[in-house]
TrEMBL record:
Gene from which the chain derives: aroC
Protein name, per record: Chorismate synthase
Residues noted as binding NADP(+) in the record, renumbered to the chain: R42, R48
Catalytic activity field: 5-O-(1-carboxyvinyl)-3-phosphoshikimate = chorismate + phosphate
Family note: Belongs to the chorismate synthase family.
Cofactor requirements of the protein: FMNH2
A Pfam family hit: Chorismate_synt
């Protein structure tokens, strides 16, 4: 059991989602507006379904936060489903109407979704319960957990941001300067330039008009980490492995790279590894960051850069061939209101999940029941090993 952990419950069209986060130190400020802001960023984008326009992600804190700060108890939060009344007759866990349940039945699994394997595994011929829990709606609850973790690491001077790098084969500028990261982080589609944003929108409109869907790629960056977060001593302490697991867990993500990732496989070592130098004050420095801030399963003090690749959305308005499981006859996949492209939203979930992994590693390494303890232990470690941003100051 890790020091920091979270669980979620709830269905996509159920009463709502529940997040319970345990292990945060007491005394961490949790402005509810910040949680709401991250949920709002997750809802934005272009090519998102009608639901994102309807949803308001009404958030309620049930415990573990008092007077704006964590108390040390598990933090329990819920996000209400604003369409609950519409779904209640078919989704109420305590009493639902068999006629409404029948109307919302799903017998034709969507290729690319959890429908078929999930239905077979849990014995649901009507795959509605699979859709409901496998849906990426759960990532709103993950975003809540990840944002709590993010508040913790931000209190240690660590910053997380992201940018979209491609949608449906159209590539856009990757941020290289602080200002560009800032712009991309705040842009609905995660772009540095408005013209790039328009190009992505155009590609999404094209897919929409063809009844198709799109995937793409994004990059997440973490600044302000000292060297030595994570460890090489056991496989499950390696930070890159833990990051990959968290990124791959995001629905639709099919590949993860740290730094230059797969491109390094084709180059000789002399063109890959980042030489170690000293600056004029005798401090260690790197001139390149192809490793993406991680060597030997640990941060090396450089910016952590993680790329992720998302497959196209599986729910299509022109559905793919499937079968009706109850009749075992050829048919077409189930259609449901859906996004056409969720890459800009997935990168917000990725910011939250990366924050989670970093916070987990930091809590394991430094621990502490109250925030000041964590901060003191972290800053005493930073004063021993150094941190790029502090060195510059
Ligand atoms: C934020 C977000 C929103 C998504 N929205 C949809 C959607 O509206 N419709 C859909 O079919 N898939 C959507 N997906 C993708 C599916 O959840 C995903 O492709 C599916 O769970 C199978 O992916 P897997 O094979 O990686 O588990 C979304 C993913 C994310 C991260």
């Amino acid at each position: 059991m890790g020091i920091l952990r979270f669980l979620t419950s709830g269905e996509s069209h159920g009463r709502g989602l529940i997040t319970v986060v345990e292990g945060l130190p007491a005394g961490l400020s949790v402005p509810i507006e910040r949680l709401e802001k991250e949920l709002e960023r997750r809802r934005r984008g272009y090519g998102r379904g009608a639901r994102m326009k309807i949803e308001k992600d009404h958030l309620t804190i049930w415990g573990g936060i008092w007077n704006g700060k964590t108390t040390g108890a598990p933090c329990g939060l819920t996000i209400e489903n604003s369409e609950w009344e519409e779904w209640r007759s078919s989704m109420d866990p305590q009493s639902c109407d068999p006629k409404a349940v029948k109307e919302k039945s799903v017998y034709c699994p969507r290729p690319g979704h959890a429908d078929l394997p999930g239905g077979l595994k849990y014995g649901h011929e009507n795959m509605r319960p699979v859709l409901e829990r496998a849906s990426a709606r759960a990532t709103a609850a993950w975003t809540v957990a990840g944002t709590l973790a993010r508040l913790l690491i931000e209190s240690l001077g660590i910053e997380v941001r992201s940018a979209v790098t491609s949608v449906g084969g159209v590539t856009v500028k990757v941020p290289s300067e602080e200002e560009e990261w800032h712009v991309a982080s705040n842009s609905p589609l995660g772009c540095v330039f408005q013209t790039d944003e328009e190009r992505l929108k155009e590609r999404i409109r094209e897919a929409m008009s063809e009844g198709d869907s799109l995937g793409g790629a994004f990059v997440v960056s973490v600044k302000g980490l000292p060297p030595g977060v994570g460890s090489y001593v056991e496989w499950d302490r390696r930070l890159d492995g833990r990051i990959a697991q968290a990124m791959m867990a995001i629905p639709g993500i099919k590949g993860v790279e740290v730094g230059e990732g797969g491109r390094l496989a084709d180059l000789p070592g002399s063109q890959v590894h980042d030489g170690i130098f000293m600056d004029e004050k005798g401090r260690i420095k790197r001139e390149t960051n192809r490793a993406g801030g991680i060597e030997g399963g640990m941060t090396n003090g450089e910016e952590v850069l993680v790329r992720a690749f998302m497959k196209p959305i599986p729910t299509l308005t022109r559905p793919l061939p499937s079968i009706r499981l109850d009749l075992m006859e050829a048919s077409f996949a189930h259609r449901e209101r859906s996004d056409v492209c969720a890459v800009p939203a997935a990168r917000i979930v990725a910011e939250a999940m990366l924050s989670w992994v970093i916070a987990e590693a930091i809590m394991e390494q430094f621990g502490g029941d109250i925030l000041e303890e964590v901060q003191e232990r972290f800053s005493s470690y930073v004063s021993r090993v150094g941190r790029r941003d502090d060195e510059k100051a």
